[in-house]
Write a structure and sequence with these properties.
Distance between the termini: 34 Å
Order of helices and strands: HHEHEHHEEEHHEHEHHEH
Number of helices: 11
CATH superfamily: P-loop containing nucleotide triphosphate hydrolases
Strand content: 5-15%
Structural class: alpha/beta
Number of strands: 8
CATH class: Alpha Beta
CATH architecture: 3-Layer(aba) Sandwich
Largest sheet: 5 strands, parallel
Strand order of the largest sheet: 2-6-1-7-8
Radius of gyration: 18 Å
Amino acid sequence: MDAQRYFSRLSKYHGALKGLRRQKPPVFLYMPVPLIIAIDGPAASGKSTLGFRLAETLGYLYFDTGLMYRAITWLVLKRGMDVKNEAVVTQLAQEVPIEVSPPSLEDGRTCDVVVDGLDITWEIGKPEIDSNVSTVAAYPGVRTALSIQQRRIGKRGRVVMVGRDIGTIVLPEADLKIYLDASPEQRARRRYDEILSRGGKASYEEILAKVIQRDRIDSTRIVAPLKAAKDAIILDSDKLSADQVFEKAYDLCIN
């Protein structure tokens, strides 16, 4: 998913969530609330939607760690480097700091992504990034280097961090770990329906095959394979709406 469509989909919750915050009693002001929340799970399980809504409600930073891989990909291309040169890309990830912070502009973004002093929040959603980010994200050295950067930001607290290895690798000491799961069939159906709702065309069978393939790659990679942390709370969203998933996760935060 390109970043502009990604941010646009999430930003539609802004108004509704502001109303939700007004309706709910501010119990998190006087009850202990986890300062670091980790949300992991397979592709298309609804992690981004849940993470964004929790962050909005709690007043936390929403941090989708996938943005860091996009940022490094952007930098590689900007400097004219070869995306397929694993050593060069890894060194860049080790040397260049990436900052992710609360949004400074009300333009639909859910956070600011800054590299070398440049706000590249919207730059990382361009087609050339989509075409190359998977290659960059597959390098073990890049994953290790960016995990360190993600941890640096996460340790500041008041953050909802979303990814595939947050509770197991990046922030194993997170106060609350949620593993959001759903069957491949359900995740493929959601993605299929989303494409159709935008007026696009799609094949459910092709989407399902890609979901299953992505699951296999994520769960069998050597570095930071996808799996639930031993102390994570598993939420199965197969038979739950996005609102129901949010309510369950919110209750975990305040109770």
